[in-house]
Specification:
There is one protein chain. The longest helix has 18 residues, at 222-239. The chain has one domain. It has three helices and 14 strands. The strands form two sheets. It has an eleven-stranded mixed beta sheet with strand order 10-11-12-13-1-2-5-7-8-9-14. Strands 3-4-6 form a three-stranded mixed beta sheet. By secondary structure, it is α+β, with helices and mostly antiparallel strands. A hairpin with a 5-residue loop joins β1 (9-19) and β2 (25-37). The chain is globular and about 50 Å long. The protein has helices at residues 72-82, 209-218, 222-239; strands spanning 9-19, 25-37, 49-51, 57-59, 92-96, 99-100, 108-114, 120-128, 134-140, 153-156, 170-178, 181-190, 193-206, 255-256. InterPro entries: DUF1365 (IPR010775). This is DUF1365 domain-containing protein. Pfam families: DUF1365.
Length: 257
């Protein structure tokens, strides 16, 4: 059963990472995320899911946006206005991993910002590293035209994520939706080459207690597994003698576009 375009949903799929330089390293892991329209967040009532309260799955406003527990929708509206995008005044959908049993490490969440006709106009990529730091990349076409499948949007890399990549080069984003399948591609380019390709894809279904129960049965320790897998892949890269880069100071600005 498909979820309507702007209905709360569960997106079940996988994430693929493939490094090409200086050593090849590829892996795919199962992944599930929530897609929640911000206009529906405060009133959302689903078994097993808590919004700013404990439950098996939980979404806390202090994990996103201003990270002070304040409502997310006004924060994102203010951010769009600050960057000259006040006209993007349709639904905003947050795609994120929830906390599971209170634990979360979320490498990246996406805020999909639409106009009133439902067209995608801007995306905020909210990135976290294992040092407890965060940075937001806001991407849109310069003329604010709709973002279509296959369109490539770029952002200069300014934030340290992996010690096996320097803080330079750029990210190239692509976003697509075909039926119930939602796909995000992030390619990291440096020195004229794609150094790392990341592909997140999943199939949407309505956000219900049954969908969350199925998620729990299939991926009961998903959020714990994210951290374990990051360190396992780091060990593999170290064994392959991939160069190590010391962590620089984080950028002074929390948002780049």
């Amino acid at each position: 059963m498909a979820a309507p375009l702007f209905a709360p949903s569960v997106c079940v799929g996988a994430v693929l990472h493939e490094r090409t330089q200086p050593a090849h390293n590829r892996f795919t892991y199962p992944l599930a995320t929530l897609r929640i329209p911000l206009s529906a967040m405060e009133g959302l009532r689903v078994p097993l899911l808590g919004i700013d309260r404990p439950n098996v799955f939980s979404v806390r406003t202090r994990d996103h946006g201003a990270r002070d527990g304040s409502p997310l929708l006004p924060w994102m509206r203010g951010l769009l206005a600050q960057y000259g995008m006040a006209g993007i005044d349709g639904e905003i959908v947050l795609q994120t991993m929830p906390r599971m049993f209170g634990f979360l490490f979320n490498p990246v969440s996406f805020w999909f910002c639409h106009d009133r006709s439902g067209a995608l106009r801007a995306v905020l990529a909210e990135v976290s590293n294992t040092f407890g730091e965060h940075h937001n990349y806001l991407v849109a076409h310069p003329d604010r035209r709709p973002i279509l499948a296959g369109d490539e949007l770029t952002a200069c890399k300014v934030f340290h994520v992996s010690p096996f990549f320097p803080v330079r080069g750029e990210y190239r984003f692509r976003f697509a939706r075909q039926g119930t399948v939602v796909t995000t591609v992030i390619d990291y380019w440096e020195d004229g080459r794609c150094q790392l390709a990341t592909h997140l894809s999943g199939r949407e279904q309505p956000l219900t207690g049954g969908a969350l129960l199925h998620w729990l049965a299939r991926l009961p320790l998903m959020t714990f597994g994210v951290v374990a897998r990051i360190h396992w892949q780091a060990l593999r890269l170290a064994i392959k003698r991939v160069p190590f880069f010391r962590k620089p100071h984080p950028p002074t600005e929390e948002i780049s576009s």
